[in-house]
Amino acid sequence: MTLLSLRSIARSIARSIARSIATAAACLFLAGCNHAPNIDVIGSFFPVWMLCIAIAIPLTFAARVALVRFHLENEVGPLALFYPCLVILLTSLLWLIFFR
Question: What subcellular locations does the record give (predicted)?
């Protein structure tokens, strides 16, 4: 076998492996799309994450009020990073507690 044929064989094997990995990744990521949890609000169906984030935002404001009242807001680090992360944390916790 020549060096050129070995390279073409290696290239075709690499493409086959990449195609298999891409197919497996697509199957893994698309497996969660079969059912989206919804709630019925006055005849309309809304995703559950909207309800969780609508509850998490006021809870974050309440946490901010508590941090300001106890003079702890300066201790939490960059506020522009802290409060969005707190919203995401509370949204995820609400979803896990009530809808999972």
Answer: Membrane
Give the pLDDT means over successive 10-residue stretches in the chain (100 positions): 72 86 79 67 80 95 96 92 96 90
Do 43 and 79 have their domain in common?
yes
Domain total for the chain? 2
String of DSSP letters for 52-94 = HHHHHHHHHHHHHHHHHHTT-GGGSS-HHHHHHHHHHHHHHHH
Is the pTM for the entire model greater than 0.70?
no
Phi, psi of 71, deg, nearest 5: 55, 40
| Amino acid (1-letter code) at residue 74 | N
β-bridge partners, 47? 38
